[in-house]
Amino acid sequence: MTFSDETLLAYLEGTLDEVQSRAIEAAVEDDAELESRLMALDPFAPVVQDVFEKLPTEAPKVDLPEPVAHHANGGFLRLLAVAAGVGVAAVALTFWATRPAELGWAQQAAIYQSLYVPETIVSLDSSEASLDKQFAMAEAALGRSLNRETLDSLPGLELKRAQVLSFKGKPLVQVVFADEQGQPFAFCVIRQGPNAPKAEVKRSVLSGLATATWAQDGYGYMLLGSSPQTDLSSELDVLTRTFAG
Fold this sequence. Notes:
Shape: rod-shaped
Low-confidence stretches: 68-73, 79-83
Number of strands: 6
Strand content: 15-25%
Radius of gyration: 32 Å
Helix content: 40-55%
Order of helices and strands: HHHHHHHHHEEEEEEH
Strand order of the largest sheet: 1-2-3-6-5-4
Number of helices: 10
Mean pLDDT: 81
């Protein structure tokens, strides 16, 4: 059966009677050329095609609305459904392209440490008995020694606490210090696993704190100062030699 462009437009606009609408729908199932003519006449079809051609290969799946039967304003409802689908695709694409990057363990630890002030650490229980217990728990969680003797003798720093945290199920230990002005310092160790890549020392400022990070033999390390300008050189020299493997 042959359908004129006027008839197909009436179908898309929902003004065609039900008998003719069903005839077109049945014909489209077996007639690719007729389907192409419909797409060419549908003002929303190029918009839909353009949106999905521009979606990245890793963009989230977008489910378009179910087809609407073409009777009594069915064409109008169909156009609304397609328009809604385009809107969903556009929103999904915008979210995919602009979503914030997932924070890594170092960024998360820096955010946590940035909340520390001198008052946070001044009243911590730093007795030998308390530190013995804390370091025993921390080393058991990490599965390695924290070389407490070295940490306890870092120049200009007073050892205050070791606590066990977690990042995505991986044990993360935060060792807290106070500098000579009572400002908080921290040294963090995370167990990343035997297949984790080695990383050379990288200095940066995270959450307003001077930091240095490195990784070796399945563990990640980070030293954090108390401000963006903190000089970490002397402590970093000791720690990178001590925790080199």
